[in-house]
Amino acid sequence: MEIGVLTSGGDSPGMNAALRAVVRSAIRKDHQVFGIRRGYRGLIEGGVSMQPLQWRDVAGILQRGGTILGSARCQEFRERSGRLQAVANMLRCNLDRLVVIGGDGSLSGAQLLHEEWEGLLAELVEKGEISTELASRHPKLGVVGLPGSIDNDLPGIDVSIGSDTALHRIVEAVDRIFSTADSHQRIFVVEVMGRRCGYLALMASLATGAEVAILPESPPGPGWEEVLCQKLTAARKAGRRASIVLLAEGARDTLQNPITVSQVKHLLEDRLHEEVRVTILGHVQRGGAPTAFDRNQSTILGAAAINALEHVGEPVLIGLHGNRAVPTPLRECLRRSLAIDEALQRGNEEQAIELRGPHFVKALQTRKTLGHILPAGASGQTYRIAVMHAGAPAPGMNMAVRASVRLLMDQGHTVLGIRRGMKGLVEGDISELKWMDVSGWSSLGGAQLGTNRKVLTGHDLYAVARHLEHFQVQGLLIIGGLAAYETAETIRTQESHYPSFSIPVICIPATIDNNLPGSDFSIGADTALNSIVEVVDKIKQSAVASRRCFVVEVMGRECGYLALTSALATGAERVYLPEEGIEIEKLIQDLRGFSAGFRQGRRVGLAIRNECANSLYTTNFIASLFEEEGKEDFDVRQAILGHLQQGGDPTPFDRTLAVRLTAQACEKLLELCNSEQFLSLGVGLQSGKTDFIDLSDLGHLLDPARGRPKKQWWLHLQGLMQQLAQQD
Ligand code: ADP
User: Fold this and answer.
1) Are residues 45 and 77 in the same domain?
2) In CATH, what number is assigned to the domain containing residue 664?
3) Continuous H helices in 436-572
4) CB of 40 closer than 6 A to ligand 1?
5) Looking at the domain assignment, is residue 470 inside a domain?
6) Looking at ligand 1, which atom is closest to the CA of residue 77?
7) What is the pLDDT of residues 418-458, one digit of tens each?
8) pLDDT at 706 over 80
């Protein structure tokens, strides 16, 4: 096949990763790819704007923001005459397959080109520009769209390429603004992108704890000015030194009047007599290296695009649905997108929100509660719920505690914090957590409540039972790793011996290792992955001038998730996983592969090894083997990344995951309290949806010797990683 690929509309970080995957997956299948410069403009210009791309042309671009093909808006393509010219140029290269990476405008253009294809061919034949024979060889145009838009405004997919990176930029900026605002007792009004979609503002407000977020989907009604002033005044009275108002670009009121940052600034200055500062984040949100998630999702989607082009039918949009690349008819996505725009224009926000999908609906609800300045108060039966950690610290744990305190207190429940993990539970280090005790915890890495790896033993149970009784604990949330799950199970199985164990317990998965059953992702793993990827990018850069191979060791215990996903995101050639172990033949084969690559002109090589991949073939051993046996062709350095992987501020994904899972866990825990069902459950994200596992099934779900789930969804990515990285 001859396949054209273009990036169009606003650029988004991850487009390059998608391009690399498109080109390399196609080459693997002996197809030829033409890179089209500057979106549809390149199709209309033809000639040098449409060039074949080789394997090496897309080397070293995985970590680069923007798009090496260039992107543009092109008015001529909106005209039929422009599209006619585009088709003529495409046929000169025998192109009748197109991958378009862009937003809904670009994808509408692709849909239209597909629909008009036959008519345009007929017109070209009639004008004598192409032969009938050429036209008959290309009867249809195959189109695959990939969602490239930082706004995440395309419905029907989990998230578009670039929006995770944009959220990183926003959250980093707001965290910094918070710290300066806090020192000066100021109000900041921050504008983020999103003309027709409030996704970025909504997620950023969940991730940062901004007091106010104004989105196109939830416009404030008449008199909003007074409500806003009252809210910020109440915030100051409650002890908040700084306040942040997040505004989506498309913010407006229910009467469709735009709400601008300067309007809000003047309003607050005039009425509250406070210093108000404005920050418009603008293009900063588009810039910089893509996050690990954006690189990996783009890679998965790019490879899937080539598979989808093998059958020419109706155009499809390929997007992630619960970790998998799934094609949906492009026409349907565009129809839904249009329906959302129309609903917003008509002022029917409810319909627009519903069309955005259940995740958006739930996030808005949660945001509403978390945005309360003080708890709303009891409306029914109230309970005393304890919250604690277990296992190693994971970034995002604090956010989970904050969310549980606020969500539970808002309904009048009492929240007790158990400090220092299991040690605190055994020693009775328990005290009430109040609304403002968790203020500012959103962005904090580590675990403010304290945690450790202790697990409960038979000797501890009596003391634990006494403390639960003394503090009248009626439900327990444990945020942590395997130790949390084991503790929850102990409590359930010992219920007949200790009456105070007759309580429901819910575990919230939080460990960088991502080795917990019942959840595709655990809180903290995304932060660790991004920390690894940032460091490996730097390590790779340090070697551009030399022929050097790096062997990098990452954490994960007996689970290879961090190793494999970081290998995919950094373009590593080899990965060593505990799920597979390491054999000497394979090491020798890998060594030969590196030697051959360096002889052909490669300058840097990368192998990533999980810390437990093999107890004898250590990182040091592999590095020494490569060094000694490959010394004619390259030199070797090793890097053991260590605890930097457990630290750092949580990423937006980990923060919003913490909020999402905690909201679900709290809801369920209260339901169990009400119905007096003393179960032990684990909450999780499974194929894009929140769900629970019963921990009495733990034995079936977990490989006890290895401490990892028996089924791991991400293992299939290894094939993709190898397919794209070899010969890099
Ligand atoms: P985005 O793809 O980010 O939504 P735009 O809406 O600006 O960005 O669209 C990018 C380009 O896609 C436009 O400049 C134009 O060339 C093409 N395009 C957009 N909408 C259409 C359409 N309805 N018909 C044909 N081409 C279109």
Assistant:
1) yes
2) 3.40.50.450
3) 461-470, 482-493, 525-541, 561-570
4) yes
5) yes
6) 16
7) 999 999 999 999 999 999 999 999 999 999 999 988 888 88
8) yes
Distance between start and end Cα atoms, the chain: 23
Predicted local confidence at residue 453, as pLDDT:
87
* 217: alpha, beta or left? (left if phi > 0; alpha if psi -120 to 50): alpha
Asked whether residue 144 falls in the same domain as residue 199, the answer is: no
Structure confidence at residue 44 (pLDDT): 97
Residue 180, domain member (yes or no) = no
Which secondary structure element, helix H or strand E, spans residue 603, and what is its range?
Answer: none
C-beta of 104 in contact with ligand 1 (< 6 A): yes
Mean residue pLDDT of the chain comes to: 95
DSSP three-state, residue 252: strand
460 is catalytic: no
The vertex-137 CA angle with 132 and 143, nearest 5°, equals: 120
Rg (CA), the chain: 27
Backbone angles phi, psi at 429, to 5 degrees: -80, 75
Same domain, 575 and 659: no
In a domain, 491, yes or no: yes
CA distances from 15 to 23, 67, 197, 271, 542 (A): 12, 6, 20, 45, 24
Q: Is the pLDDT of residue 255 over 50?
A: yes
Whether residue 449 sits in one domain with residue 336: no
Residues 211 and 314 placed together within one structural domain of the fold: no
Domain final residue, candidates 605, 622, 648:
648
Domain count for the chain: 4
Q: Are residues 434 and 460 in the same domain?
A: yes
- Catalytic hit among 151, 153, 410, 728: 151
Q: What is the residue range of 605's domain? A: 526-648
CB atoms within 10 A of CB 262: 11
Segment 260-278 mean pLDDT: 95
- Please give the DSSP secondary-structure letter assigned to residue 510: B
Q: Which residue in the block uniquely carries the two structure tokens 């808006």?
A: 73
Per residue in 320-340, pLDDT (tens digit) is 998 999 999 999 999 999 999
pLDDT band at 378 (very low <50, low <70, confident <90, very high): confident
Q: Is the pLDDT of residue 728 over 90?
A: no
Same domain as 664, residue 515? yes
CA of 73 to the centre of ligand 1 (A): 7
Write the pLDDT tens digit of every residue in 380-411: 899 999 999 999 999 999 999 999 999 999 99
Contact 387, 405 (CB under 8 A): yes
Q: What is the SS3 string spanning 59-99?
A: CCCCCCCCCCCCCCCCHHHHCHHHHHHHHHHHHHCCCCEEE
- Whole-angstrom distance, CA of residue 608 vs CA of residue 562: 10
Q: Is 78 in the pocket of ligand 1 (CB under 6 A)?
A: yes
Mean pLDDT of 623-638: 96
Q: 321 burial class (0-12, 13-18, 19+ CB within 10 angstroms)?
A: middle
Q: What is the CATH number of the domain that holds 572?
A: 3.40.50.460
What number is the average pLDDT over the span 108-136?
97
> Which residues, in sequence order, are CB contacts of 693 under 8 Å at separation 6+?
517, 518, 681, 682, 684, 701
Query: In this structure, which residue's CA is closest to atom 27 in ligand 1?
Result: 109
pLDDT, tens digit (0-9, with 9 covering 90-100), for 636-693:
999 999 999 998 999 999 999 999 999 999 999 999 999 999 999 999 999 999 999 9
Facing residues of 325 across strands?
320
User: DSSP state, 433?
Assistant: P
Task: Tell me, yes or no, whether 557 lies in a domain.
Answer: yes
Q: Is the CB of 178 under 6 A from ligand 1?
A: no
Quote the pLDDT of residue 727. Answer: 56
Same domain, 126 and 195: no
42: alpha, beta or left? (left if phi > 0; alpha if psi -120 to 50): alpha
Q: Are strands 212-214 and 243-248 parallel, antiparallel or unpaired?
A: parallel
